[in-house]
Amino acid sequence: MIEEHHLSVQRTARYFILGQCTEETNCLVIACHGYGQLAKHFIKKFDVIARPDTLVVAPEGLSRFYWGGLSGNVVASWMTKEDRHAEIADFTAYLTQLYDHFTAGLRANVRIILLGFSQGCATQLRWMAREKPAFSHLVLWAGSIPEDIDYTPVRDYLQGKPLHFVYGTEDLFITPERVTAQKTLATKLPMDYQVHTFEGKHTVEREALQRLFAQIRP
């Protein structure tokens, strides 16, 4: 008889930072990349919001693979449909440890912005639903709100918090139907839902990022 079992093991996670944690820091950005990316490349997009008072942290997905099959560029993913509950548990524990590490050195009134791009959007929301980290703004960039989460237990936690949905008008993954579905799903979250668009494709566009942070960062 074949039986499935799980064993928790210790492993090393990687993350990159832009900026420093100092007494000046009043804005912490935790930015989760999308499917098939690496944090060291993803974080470069955030150079347009770099300031002495801002710290950007880009964690990397725990699963790496060769994009071209057996060789070539190495990329990362947050989860797949295989053994997904264990993968969700692993990355939420990882993000919580990372969050605690940085917030411990910051003052209590720091503005915390949680941002996910593409697959990173679901990553952020799954983490939030399980661990309820304190935050000021949630940015879902060219991604989706997971439909399989029960948001009822976190309604008070999310009440009134700003939720920014950002996408490019030329993004092949964000169709008009998907935009409508996203808006419908957002009604499950008692958040202040705001939509931002830019002329571009499935990417974090620097000028759009700069405009957004001019609005949400102190």
How would you summarize what this structure contains?
This protein is α/β, with parallel strands linked by helices. It has helices spanning 39-42, 84-103, 119-131, 155-158, 176-186, 206-216, and strands spanning 15-18, 27-32, 54-59, 63-66, 74-77, 111-117, 137-141, 162-168, 192-198.
Overall pLDDT metric: 95
Q: Output the radius of gyration.
A: 17 Å
List the secondary-structure elements in sequence, H or E: EEHEEEHEHEHEHEH
How does the overall form come out from the CA principal axes? Answer: globular
Indicate the low-confidence ranges by residue numbers.
none
| CATH class placement | Alpha Beta
Name of the CATH homologous superfamily: Alpha/Beta hydrolase fold, catalytic domain
Number of DSSP strand runs: 9
CATH architecture: 3-Layer(aba) Sandwich
